[in-house]
Each structure stands twice: as structure tokens, then as C-alpha cells.
Amino acid sequence: MATTKVALEPNTPTAALSAKLRVNKVNMTFNRDGQRLSVLDNIDLEVADGEFVCILGPSGCGKSTLLSAIAGFLTPTSGQITIDGEAVRGPDPRRIFVFQERGVFPWLTVAGNIGFGLAKLKRAERTERVQRYIQMVGLEGFEKSYPHELSGGMKQRVEVARALAVNPDILFLDEPFGALDSITRMVMRGELLRIWEAERKTILFVTHDIDEAVQLADRVVVMSARPGRIQQIVPIDIAHPRDISSPHYLELRDGILNQIGLAHHL
Amino acid sequence: MSALAEPRKWERYAWPVVATVLFLAFWHYAVLLTATKIFPSPAEVERGFVELMREGVLYRDVLDSIRRVAIGFFAAVALGIPLGLLFGWYPAINQVVNPVVQVLRPISPIAWIPVAIIFFGVGDYAAIFLVFLGAFFPIVVTCVAAVGDVPLIYRRAGRNFGLTPARILSRVVFPAALPQILVSLRVALGIGWLVVVAGEMIAVTSGLGFLIIDSRNSGKRYDLVVGAMILIGVIGLVLDTLFRRLEKIKPVRWGFRDEF
Amino acid sequence: MSVRLRPAIFLVLLLVLWQAAVWRHPHQLLPGPWKTAGGIADLVHHGLLVKYVVASLFRVTWGFFLAVVLAIPLGLAIGWYRRAEMAFNPILQILRPISPLAWIPIAILWFGVGDLAAVFLIFIGCFLPLLLAVINAVHGVPAVYLNAGRNFGLGPIALMRRVLYPAIVPRLMTALRITLGVAWLVVVAAEMIAVNSGLGFLIVDARNAGNRYDLVVAGMVLIGVVGLLLDAGIRSLEKAKALGWAYAEDH
Fold first, then answer.
1. CA of A168, closest CA in chain C: separation in Å?
2. What HEC string does chain A produce?
3. Predicted ipTM beyond 0.85
């Protein structure tokens, strides 16, 4: 069998000039019980505007930590993270983090949640925007429902809608579909792609599911564990909608599988 | 937001000291500025207290209070836990008894004082009875709830291994409910401490509660009043802290136990 | 036999035992249920029942309300700012075991004998537990909610108002219910000592001014019943639809 050929690139930036997000030599060490644990080691990454990038790796490789640091919830021990040339100092409404569906506020209705970030708008404008995003994620009719009345997939949609409603530049998603059953997961992936193609936001998506990464991303950042390092960045040059049984898709997928296998041995 | 930045280790000790010092200073100057003749300043409280300690009176009062709490509390535990487990285990019994418990529970032990005095006269037993009442109801109520909270799968496992109901109760349900029960014991001890002080103010002639009332009545010694209050707070805190340590010892954190 | 009947029958049984015990010892002072009921009727007859219950409730309302209004914002702030909690925690922990009744001499010193002293005592009895409960509840709020709030650009005040406070509402309701119970406890005790109306006063006065133990026990029964009603009242509040999310099974 021919060796799988994956376009393995060294970590070069895609287009240095239009880099939206730049992660520069970021290290993260934690102190746990007096021991210093190195979670992220020398991470360099650049993401262009409107790109869909997946961060893929085994559990414990630090991908969620990396995402939290980029979003401004954690401060790196060393290194720099800049977005649009500005250093990241904390969370910001221009870059919204989509937590798993447990991030939905249980005391607000669906409409209340989606409109959460829109407090500064006038009532009429807010209602109109909320309605638009309710329709976009397919939750018409549930405006007045409370989260505890919804299924996991529906709650996830509420979160995505809430994030989109404030029109952020970047969306961070941390294994958002992890708690859903496989069919819902497939549906949600399709929905996410549809929304991405409509709105063209920059998306940073963390997952441990290889298929998910190859189906969604423009580039897949493969990370290795303990300490977390970027092992390879694999561009997925297949146009959407992607045929998941096409040879090229399978080639890329298998290549990444090998990479992960290597990552597990490290 | 620097307010959210991780506080350093030394800050854990620095801030309380700052707050306490400020509080004492505020107290001291408030007394000074309002030129009150009666309300004591922190220094006066300390002096009054040292005086009591030297006379040996303080130890006796503290021991009296603690003794009453101990007896009342242990009686409540000895009676309350078995009853609570029983009521929780047999819902039929609980159904019958619960409304009565719910009506009796809000009646403050303080309101029982006249009854206590009728039965026991003024003295130790009245106070102990009050402590018992204050501690008994929370223990029973929590035991009932704790039994209910034990997951059904544990009980089923017990049955599966051929245990009799009595054995299931003692070897499965009780250990499973133990953390919750211990918390209720801590709370009950706290209530007992609260009640004994209150009871002593009315129904006995020794103890910290009595010290408060007596200091005021026979000489307006508010420095002793405040001093006694502080001592009550400190002892209560010590009792609570000791109990929390108890909750943390290994056999209770049953994740570590591998034999029964 | 209907299930609902059983507790009622048990209650009746207890009453019968109580009455029988009293008949056995006719010379002791404690009244039986019959005499107690007579005492209650007596109070109604003199128009005192309503008057005393209202007096007690009035003091509870004021003391409780003041405590709530102060404890919630303060608790949110202390729970939120770690340094504030570090600073105040020792003082709070020492104040906690001090029974409100131990404050009586100080209450009388500052406010004299009367309503204000009673309200103050209730306030003391409610404020601290409530404050500690709010602080505790704040610690229990999942970090996700706070992170999401910060993500949407909320400053500390907006965060407390729009995320922290709604998130603690369920635990707050429980704390309010328990604290109201404490308030009721304290008002009775405070009235025994510091005022001249109300149910606590009734108990003390009935005994002092004529050994009317039927009124004493009647007072105790009323205390229990009103306490139960207050508790049931708050429980029904907890069931309001807007709070349904707190008790729903999910996740």
C-alpha cells in the first residue's frame, strides 16, 4: 500500500500579513502540589481571518488550556498572544468562547440567553437580532423555553446563537459537541459549517475526534501531549461540502491518525 | 481586573490582620469619641477578662457551659441517629412521625424554657434538656434525609450480597450516609452551643450565658459582657473547626476504605 | 386506612397520652391539651391572639427585611472579592457562634427596652447566617457562568447583578427560609426579655403574672403553628415558575 502522503508542512504561517491571531512562543506551567507541570511548550501558531482551524490531540495535551489562554481566561507563563496586533489581556466580547451546553444560563429563557450580550441595544433592535439568530440555529418556537426544558443539542444551539448574536470576530469552541449523541453531533457539525460559511467568522475549534477535525477544518493543528506541543499542522484542501469517502479525505485522515499515533507514543 | 488576580500566600494572613486591626481601632475610637461611660473599649474588655481569669472564675464558667453542651449533645446524638435512621428506613413510620416533628421543630428551645424549668427546676438539667432539644431535631431530620439520599444501587448491592435489612442499614446505608450525618452533627453542635448560652441566661446560675446576664445585672460590667461574648464566639469557632477536622479523617472519606 | 389519616391519628394519640398524663398528676402545673385549647380560646376572647401574633410578626418582618437588604449585596461582594473574604472571614467566624440572645444586654444598652431592641436582635440573628450563606452560594456558582459573563464584556457590578445573583437564587431561597425560621426563634426569645407584647412576652407574662400555664403552653403551640405557616409560605414561593429551573432535573 502506498504510504499515505500528507502534506506535512513545517509550522509556517499561512499569510503573515493577514494573520488575525498570533500565538508566539507560548509556555504554560502550573504548580501542582509543589511540582511544576509543563502543560504547554513553545506553542507557535498563526490563524488568518475567516479561517476554520481545529486543534486536535489526545486528552491531556493541553488543547483546552491553549484555547482558554488564547481567549484570555488564562495568562501564559511566557510568550505572547496577539489578536489584530493587540495583546490579549482578558476575555473580550469580540472573541466569544462557546462552552459546552452547560454554559447556558439556566435562569434565562432561550431568548434571554441569546440576547444576553445585547444589553446595549434598544429593545426593538435586540428582539429583531435575537429572532434572527433563533432562526439561524433552528430553534423557532422555543423563545420562551427555559434551558432545563431543552435537550443537550438544543442547549448547544442556544450557546452558539448567543455567541453569534454579538457578532464576534473570533469564535472559540471547546469540544462543543462532546456531550451529544453521534447523530446529533453530525447534524450540529453541518449546522456549524453552514453558519460559518454564511458569516465567515474565524473559528478555533478544539476536539479529540479526528473525523470531526478533518470534516470541519481548513487546517488541523495536531498536538502531542505532556507537555503540549504542536506536532504538525495539516492543511485540509478539500472544498466544502466534503465527501467523507473520497480518497483524498481518507488519505488526510489516515495521515493524521498516524500523527496521533506518534503523539501517543511520546 | 486586578481584583481577580490570584492572591498571594501571604495575603491569607495579611488581610484578616488588617481587617481586625481596623475593626479594633474603629471600636476603640468610637468609644473614645462618643465618650460613653458604659460601653467598653477593647482594652477594658481585655483587662476585665484577665481579672476574671486570675480569680479562677472564668474557667469554671467555661467548663460548665462546655459540660452542658457535651451532655446534651451526646444525648441528642445517641437518640437522634438511631431514630433518624429508623424513620428514614421505614417511610411508613416517617410519614406518621414527620408532621409532629415539623410542628415541634420551629419551637425554639428558648420557648421550651418554662417547660424545662417546670420539669427540671432551675439548674443544670434544664440547660442540658434545652441543648438536647436544640440538637435533636436537626440530627433526626438530616438522618432521615441522608437515608433517602443513599443511592438505590447501594441498597440493591447489599441485598444482592445476601445482607439482612439490619445489616444493610449498618454496613451500607449508615456508612454511605455518614458524611451528611457528620455535617448535621457539626451544625447541631453549633446550635447546642448557641442554645446553652441562651439557656444559661435564663435557667441556670453558672456558665458563660449566666456570666453575661450577671455581669450586666450586678454592676453593669459591660467589659465582661463583651468579653464573654467574644469568648463564646471563639469557643464556638474552635468546636466547629475541631469537628471539621473530624470530618476529614480518613475513615470518613470512604474513598480510601477498602474493608468494612 | 388512608395514608393521610395516619399522621393525624398519631397526633391524636399523642394528645390523648398528654391529656392522660395530666390527669394522672393533677397537682402539677403543666396543662393538658384541653386546657391549652381553652387558653387559646381565652386569648381570642380578649382579642389578644391577633394582637400578639401581629406584634411578633411585625418585629420579625422588620428585622428580617433589614438583614436581607444588607446581607445580599454584602455577601455578593465578599464572596466575589477573595481578599475581602480573607479579611473578614475570621471576624465573621467568631461572631457566628454568638447567640443573638447574648446580644441582649448590648441591645438594651443601645436601644432600651422596646421594639427597636427586639428588631435589632432579630437583625443580628438573621444577618450573619444569611451573609455566610450568600458567600457560600457565591463560591458554589459554576465558573462557566462567570467566564461567560466576563466574555460578554461585563464589568464586576454588571457581573454580580446579571450572573452571580441569578445563579445563587436557589440556594438563597433555602437560606431565606432557614433564616426566617431563625428570626421567628429569636423574636420569641427576645420578647421574653425585652418588650411587652408578642407571643414570647405572653409566655413569660402568663407565668409571672399568675401561673397561667395554660396560656404558656397555648403560646408555645401558637409559636409552632405560626412558624410552620411562615415556612410553608416561603416554600410555596420557591415553587414559583420563574424558579422552576433551579429544581429541574437536567444535565
1. 10
2. CCCCCCCCECCCCCCHHHEEEEEEEEEEEEEECCEEEEEEEEEEEEEECCCEEEEECCCCCCHHHHHHHHHCCCCCCEEEEEECCEECCCCECCEEEECCHHHCCCCCCHHHHHCHHHCCCCHHHHHHHHHHHHHHCCCCCCCCCCHHHCCHHHHHHHHHHHHHHCCCCEEEEECCCCCCCHHHHHHHHHHHHHHHHHHCCEEEEEECCHHHHHHHCCEEEEEECCCEEEEEEEECCCCCCCCCCCHHHHHHHHHHHHHHHHHHHC
3. no
